[in-house]
Automatic annotation (TrEMBL):
Classification lineage: Bacteria, Bacillati, Actinomycetota, Actinomycetes, Actinomycetales
Compartments where located: Cell membrane
Protein name in the entry: Protein translocase subunit SecD
Chain residue ranges for the region called Disordered: 145-215, 230-253, 656-721
Function, as annotated: Part of the Sec protein translocase complex. Interacts with the SecYEG preprotein conducting channel. SecDF uses the proton motive force (PMF) to complete protein translocation after the ATP-dependent function of SecA.
Residue spans crossing the bilayer: 428-448, 455-479, 485-506, 534-552, 558-579
Binding partners and assembly: Forms a complex with SecF. Part of the essential Sec protein translocation apparatus which comprises SecA, SecYEG and auxiliary proteins SecDF. Other proteins may also be involved.
Keywords from the named record: Cell membrane, Membrane, Protein transport, Translocation, Transmembrane, Transmembrane helix, Transport
Biased composition (Acidic residues): 687-699, 710-721
Length: 721
C-alpha cells in the first residue's frame, strides 16, 4: 500500500517535470537560433496576406505553335507548387489567370534560387558535345583565320566550312558510375588544340573565359554577314538546316549544319547567359554554359554545339543531392531501364572519342549545366554528376527539378513585382484582439463557474497557447513555415480546445462527487471517464486537420496545420499538466478539504452522500426510508406508544450517525435501519442486540451484498475505508 501511494505521488511530479524540461528546451533552442542564425527570431514569419512578397506572372509559349490546353496549365501549376514546397517556402499562392497565365505569389523576399525554380521549365536532356569554343561571338581576327581555313579546304576539294572546335576547358566536370570510380577529367590535347582553331589569339589563356584583348568583336550587320559567309559551305548564299550527309550517330559531326554554324558564330555567351528556347531533342543545339572553375572559383563561360538528345529527363527515376568521395557537391542519378540502356550506349561510345567530343552535356532548359567526361561505360543506370558549376545549393535545386519533372510548357516571365499584404497588420491586430476578448470571456466564465479551480484551466490554456507560439517560431526558422490569417485562426481555436478538455474533466469529477465518492476517488474516476472523451474529441479534430492539409491548398492548409498542431498540444497539456496538477491539488487542505471557493465544495455541488461500503452510497433521506434487512422470527411485540418512542429514538440515532464527520459505517447504517424498521412494526429489540445480533445481521447482509459490488466499487470502498 505504501509503495502504491509513493508511486501515485511521484507520477504527477514526473510528468510536470518532463513537460517543464520540454518547454525550457523550446525556449533555449529559439534563443540559440536568434544568436546563430539571421532567420531565427522571436516572432514567426508571415504569409502573403499579412506581409506581402513577390508576384510573378508567367506566360506560356510553345516552339511548334501548338495550342495550350487547360491540362498543360494545371500540370505546370502542380509542378511549380511541388518545387516551391521542396524549397521550404510555405504559404505560396499559385493559380492560373485567364486560363493561360500562371500567377505565382511568394511571401517575403524569396531567394534567387527559388525564383529560378519558378521561372525555369526544367526540361532536362543529355546531349553529346560536337564542338566547343570561346564564349564571345566572332571577332575580326577569328573571322580572318576561319576564312583562310575555309578557302584552304575549298582548294583541296573539300566542302568549305569553318570548324569551330576548341579545346575543352577545365570547366568540364566528370560523369562517373555510382561513387566508386575516380574519373579522369578531360584535358586539352595537342591535337585538339591545333585542330580547326580560328586563331591563337582567339583562345584565351585562362581557359576560354575571356576573348583576347587584341581582337575586335564584330557586331550588328557586320557580324551577321561574316557569320553567314563562314557558315555557307556551298556558297549558294542560303543557310541550310539539313545535314550535308546522314549522321551515323548522335556524336557524328555531320549534325553540324549551316544553320548550326551560323548560330554558333553569332551567339554571345559573355553577357548574361540566356537559355536557348529552341531545344528540339531531335536536332543539334547551340548552347552556352556558365560554370565555376573548381580550382580558382572563377566564373567561366563556354559555347557548345551539341548533338541530338540521347537521354531525357523523364527517364530519370530519382535524383539525390549529396557529396562525392572527395567531398565535392554531386547529384546522383538513377535511370529507368530505357534510360539505362541509352546511357550505357552513349557512355561506351564517348570513351573512344577525342576531346571535346568525349564530353556529355547536361542541358537544362537550353542551358548547359555541366559537360562531364565519362570515365567508364555506365551499364547499371547509376550515375553521378560532379564538378562544373555544381555547389551544395544548386545541386539541391537540380535534384528537385529532376525529381518533380519538367514543365509541359516554356514560360516567359511577363512581370515580376513586389506586392503588399492583402490583409496587413490591421487585420492581424483585429484577429488578435478578437482572440484576446475570447480569452477574457473564457477566463471570466471559468472563474465564475469553477472558482479557484478555474486557475488550473487558465494555466492549461496559457501553456497550450505559449507552446504553440514557440513551435510556430521554431518552424519559421527551421523549415520556412509562414503564418497566415487562417493559421492565426487555428491558433485561436486552441484556446477553446484546451478549455473544453478541462471542462470535460472537471464536470466528470463533479459527477463523481455528487454520486458520493471522496474527492481523491472522484479525481481518479473522473479522469478515467474524461480521458476517453478527450481522446475521442481530439482524434476527430486531428483527422479533420490531416484531411484538410492533404486535400486543400493555400491558406486552408495553413489552418489545417495549426489546427492539427494545437490538437496534439491539447493532448499533451491534458495528460502532462491538467491531470497531474489535479492529482496534487486534491492533497492540499484548501482543495482536498472542499473549501467553499476551491470549486470542490460538496455544498455547492449539492452533495450529501453517506458511504455505505463496497462502493455504494446513499443520501440521508434514502437511509431513512429504504429498508432491506429482514426481521428475525424471535422478536417481542411492543405497545403502540413504545413503538412511537422506539421509532423516534431510531430516527434520532440515524440522524446523529449520518451527521457525523465521516457519515455512518456500513454496520452502523444497517443496524440503525433495522431498529427503525422493527420499531415501526412494533417489535422490541433488546438493548444488547444492538451491538451483537443486529450487527451480525448487518454483517451478513454486507457479505451477501458484496457479491453485487463491481470491481471499481470494491476499489473505491477499500480506498474510502
Amino acid at each position: 500500500m505504501a509503495s502504491s501511494n509513493n508511486t501515485d505521488a511521484r507520477m504527477p511530479r514526473r510528468r510536470l517535470i518532463t513537460l517543464t524540461v520540454l518547454v525550457i528546451a523550446l525556449v533555449v533552442a529559439l534563443a540559440i537560433g536568434s544568436f546563430t542564425s539571421a532567420e531565427s527570431r522571436a516572432t514567426p514569419k508571415f504569409a502573403l496576406d499579412l506581409e506581402g512578397g513577390t508576384e510573378l506572372i508567367l506566360t506560356p509559349q510553345t516552339t511548334d505553335g501548338s495550342s495550350i490546353t487547360d491540362e498543360d496549365v494545371s500540370q505546370a501549376i502542380e509542378i511549380i507548387r511541388q518545387r516551391v514546397d521542396a524549397q521550404g517556402v510555405a504559404e505560396a499562392e499559385i493559380s492560373s489567370q485567364g486560363g493561360q497565365n500562371i500567377v505565382v505569389g511568394l511571401p517575403g523576399q524569396p531567394s534567387e534560387e527559388t525564383l529560378n525554380l519558378v521561372r525555369s521549365s526544367a526540361i532536362l536532356r543529355m546531349r553529346p558535345v560536337l564542338a566547343s569554343g570561346v564564349p564571345a561571338p566572332l571577332t575580326d581576327a577569328v573571322y580572318e583565320q576561319a576564312k583562310k581555313q575555309k578557302e584552304g579546304q575549298a582548294k583541296e576539294g573539300e566542302q568549305g566550312q569553318a570548324n569551330p572546335d576548341q579545346a575543352p576547358t577545365s570547366a568540364a566536370g566528370t560523369l562517373e558510375q555510382g561513387a566508386t570510380d575516380t574519373p579522369v577529367a578531360a584535358s586539352p590535347s595537342a591535337d585538339a588544340q591545333a585542330s580547326a582553331s580560328p586563331s591563337a589569339e582567339a583562345t584565351p589563356s585562362d581557359g576560354a573565359s575571356k576573348p583576347a584583348t587584341e581582337a575586335k568583336p564584330l557586331t550588328g550587320a557586320e557580324l551577321e554577314a561574316a557569320a553567314k559567309e563562314l557558315a555557307d559551305s556551298n556558297g549558294d548564299g542560303k543557310i541550310s538546316d539539313e545535314p550535308a550527309e546522314h549522321p551515323a550517330d548522335a556524336s557524328d559531326t555531320a549534325w553540324i549544319t549551316e544553320q548550326t554554324l551560323y548560330d554558333f558564330w553569332t551567339l554571345d555567351c559573355t553577357a548574361d547567359v540566356q537559355a536557348n528556347s529552341n531545344d528540339d531533342p531531335a536536332k543539334p543545339l547551340v548552347a552556352c554554359s556558365s560554370q565555376t572553375d573548381p580550382t580558382t572559383g572563377e566564373i567561366m563561360a563556354q559555347k557548345f554545339i551539341l548533338g541530338p538528345a540521347e537521354v531525357e529527363g523523364t527517364q530519370i527515376e530519382q535524383a539525390t543531392a549529396g557529396f562525392d568521395q572527395a567531398g565535392q557537391p554531386a547529384v546522383s542519378l538513377r535511370l529507368n531501364q530505357e534510360g539505362a540502356d541509352a546511357f550505357s550506349a552513349v557512355t561506351g561510345r564517348l570513351l573512344n572519342l577525342k576531346s571535346p567530343r568525349n564530353q556529355f552535356a547536361i542541358v537544362l532548359d537550353g542551358k548547359v549545366l555541366s559537360n562531364p567526361v565519362p570515365s567508364v561505360q555506365i551499364r547499371d543506370g547509376q550515375a553521378q554528376i560532379t564538378g562544373g558549376s555544381l555547389n551544395a545549393q544548386n545541386a539541391r535545386t537540380l535534384a528537385n527539378q529532376l525529381n518533380f519533372g519538367s514543365l509541359p510548357l516554356h514560360f516567359e516571365v511577363q512581370s515580376q513585382q513586389q506586392i503588399s499584404a492583402t490583409l496587413g497588420s490591421e487585420s492581424l491586430r483585429a484577429g488578435l484582439i478578437a482572440g484576446l476578448i475570447g480569452l477574457i470571456l473564457i477566463v471570466a466564465y471559468l472563474m465564475w463557474q469553477y472558482h479557484a479551480l478555474g486557475v488550473v484551466a487558465i494555466l492549461s490554456v496559457v501553456l497550450a497557447t505559449g507552446v504553440s507560439y514557440l513551435i510556430v517560431c521554431l518552424l519559421s526558422w527551421t523549415i520556412g513555415y509562414r503564418l497566415s490569417m487562417a493559421g492565426v485562426v487555428g491558433l485561436i481555436i486552441s484556446i477553446g480546445i484546451s478549455a473544453d478538455s478541462f471542462i470535460v474533466y472537471f464536470e466528470r469529477i463533479r459527477d463523481e462527487i455528487r454520486d458520493g465518492r471522496t474527492l481523491k476517488s472522484a479525481t481518479e474516476r473522473g479522469w478515467q471517464r474524461a480521458r476517453r472523451t478527450i481522446l475521442a474529441s481530439d482524434s476527430v479534430n486531428l483527422l479533420a486537420a490531416v484531411v484538410l492539409y492533404f486535400l486543400a491548398v493555400g491558406s486552408v492548409r495553413g489552418f489545417a496545420f495549426t489546427l492539427g498542431l494545437t490538437t496534439i498540444l491539447d493532448l499533451i497539456v491534458a495528460f502532462w499538466f491538467t491531470y497531474p496538477v489535479m492529482k496534487l491539488l486534491v492533497r492540499t487542505k484548501f482543495f482536498g478539504g472542499g473549501h467553499r471557493w476551491s470549486g470542490m465544495s460538496a455544498e455547492l455541488l449539492g452533495r450529501s452522500p453517506s458511504y455505505s461500503g463496497r462502493g455504494h452510497t446513499r443520501k440521508k433521506e434514502e437511509v431513512a426510508t429504504q429498508a432491506f434487512v429482514a426481521a428475525p422470527a424471535s422478536a417481542a411485540v411492543v405497545t403502540e406508544a413504545e413503538n412511537e418512542v422506539s421509532a423516534a429514538e431510531a430516527d434520532s440515532e440515524l440522524a446523529a450517525i449520518s451527521a457525523g464527520p465521516q457519515g455512518p459505517s456500513l454496520a452502523e447504517r444497517r443496524a440503525a435501519k433495522r431498529r427503525a424498521e422493527l420499531s415501526a412494526e412494533g417489535i422490541a429489540v433488546p438493548e444488547e442486540a444492538d451491538g451483537v445480533d443486529v450487527a451480525e445481521d448487518a454483517d451478513a447482509s454486507a457479505t451477501t451484498g458484496s457479491d453485487l459490488a463491481t470491481p471499481d466499487e470494491e476499489s473505491d470502498g477499500k480506498e474510502n475505508a
